[in-house]
Amino acid sequence: MSPQTSPETITPEKITVPIRQLDPELPVPGYAHPGDAGADLLAAEDFALEPGERRLVPTGIAIALPEGWVGLVHPRSGLAVRHGITLVNTPGTIDAGYRGEVKVCLLNTDRAGTVHFSRGDRIAQLVLQRIGQADFVPVADLEDSARGEGGFGSTGLGSQQ
């Protein structure tokens, strides 16, 4: 790319997501920076995670995603790096038809440290994506591809398998 050329700016698609605040004192999910993919999900209660413990944490919200969209709940990188906190089911999937409370299944992977959370702490991020659905059609054979049947580790793990 020459100095006179700049990358094309792509504006994220905006959709309206109705939200029911089950805990009206907590703010609705929001984006920390313009262009961020994930909106912050907050803990609706105080809790602690002992080493190796997992917990289903309420966020105090329920949403109604439009048909054709999915909400994917991802871990927060800062919690992972600083405390070893991740999500058991990652990404968690929120289907368009789900209307219950959004909950996050956190896991403390640290072997020694307990991690304390306060109500209102950012615990995960919600990424919205368009989806497609397939018609699965049984066939006798699949068309060949360059990769073929190469699976886990076939693109570079070599002797580390």
Automatic annotation (TrEMBL):
Tell me the GO BP annotations in alphabetical order: dUMP biosynthetic process; dUTP catabolic process
| Reactions catalysed | dUTP + H2O = dUMP + diphosphate + H(+)
Is Cytoplasm among the key words of this record?
no
Requisite cofactors: Mg(2+)
- Which EC number(s) are documented for this chain? 3.6.1.23
Which pathway is it part of? Pyrimidine metabolism; dUMP biosynthesis; dUMP from dCTP (dUTP route): step 2/2
Q: What class of enzyme is it?
A: hydrolase
* UniProt KW keywords: Hydrolase, Magnesium, Metal-binding, Nucleotide metabolism
* Binding-site residues for substrate, renumbered to this chain: R76, S77, G78, N89, T93, I94, D95
Q: Which InterPro entries match?
A: dUTPase, dUTPase-like, dUTPase-like_sf, dUTPase_trimeric
- Enumerate the Pfam families for this protein: dUTPase
A GO molecular function assigned to this protein is: magnesium ion binding
Describe the location of the dUTPase-like domain by residue ranges.
Answer: 27-156
Task: Note the HAMAP family from the entry.
Answer: dUTPase_bact
Q: Which PANTHER family does this entry report, sorted A to Z? A: DEOXYURIDINE 5'-TRIPHOSPHATE NUCLEOTIDOHYDROLASE
Q: Which NCBIfam families has this protein been placed in? A: dut (TIGR00576), PRK00601.1 (NF001862)
Q: What does this protein do?
A: This enzyme is involved in nucleotide metabolism: it produces dUMP, the immediate precursor of thymidine nucleotides and it decreases the intracellular concentration of dUTP so that uracil cannot be incorporated into DNA.
Similarity comment: Belongs to the dUTPase family.
Q: What is the protein name stated in its UniProt record?
A: Deoxyuridine 5'-triphosphate nucleotidohydrolase
